[in-house]
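User: I'm putting together notes for a lab meeting next week and I want to include a structural view of one of the chains we've been expressing. I don't have a solved structure, so I'd like a prediction I can at least talk through. The sequence is below, exactly as it appears in our construct file.
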Amino acid sequence: MTADTPTGALSPPRSRMPPLLAAVRPRQWTKNLLVIGAPLVSGRLFEAGVLRATAVAFGSLCLAASCTYLINDVHDVDEDRGHPLKRYRPVASGRLSRRWALVAAGIAGSAALVLAGTAGPPLTALVALYLAITIGYTLRLRREPILDLVAVATGFLLRGAAGGVGAGIPVSSWFLLVAGFGSLFLVSGKRYAELVGHERREGGRATLVRYTPGYLRFVWASAATLTIVAYALWANAVYLVRDEGSWALWSLLPFLIGLLRYAYEVDRGLAEAPEELLLHDRLLQVVGLVWLVMLAVGAGGMDLGA
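Assistant: Thanks for the context. Below is the predicted structure for the 306-residue chain, given as structure tokens.
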């Protein structure tokens, strides 16, 4: 999603990546790995049909996200040219024309819907909704406080549900609650880091000047609390109905450690680019791996719709 782009982490291009490839931002595709969420929790990720549907969901969202990135770069070309870092983007720098960027955006968006269609109408509808929200964010919503946070958080939530939707796996309210509140925590933490960092002084997001650090701290602290509570209630429910459910209950420990570690980085103003932080923080990686293993054992085979 355009909103997820770590603009504060951008730097002058050092690779020889073709302009079009650079413009679709392949590094941002890692966010779409969230599609494995529902299949993993259900314990069905490695079933042939589910794995295929999950891969289709991943590919569809990558294409949809790239469509939005291209539209965003065309829409913001004049603003980006005055930014010390964004001016190196292919469209802003003139390496990719606006016309070809829009053509590529149309192709990517169409391909996303066609690919999603191979997994069925539900995934097609989800990808269409993702495109509508992200394009709406680029054109208007990002300039509206609160709505910009909700729009970006919804993008993360749709990613998390896409694998289950594509594979026909029922997605429970517990999954949606944890994913929804967790997404809001990530997004508000990102905005907080941008606000207290250098982004505001370098022509950052339009809504930043309308937020205060205190308000954003309130939002991400509230979202973190709700995420923990929802996860704890879900883990306890699994514990009560499954022999292996104690693993789900114990998974609350690494989940809590990981969330607190991330909150620590948010408070230091170092969470402008969540994906970069996750890729370079060894403790978060280890804790995350332990959590995933415990989660898979504790909840594997459980009907998410139950």
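A couple of points you could mention at the meeting. Residues 172-306 form one domain. Confidence is low (pLDDT under 50) at residues 1-11, 302-306.

User: Perfect, that's what I needed.
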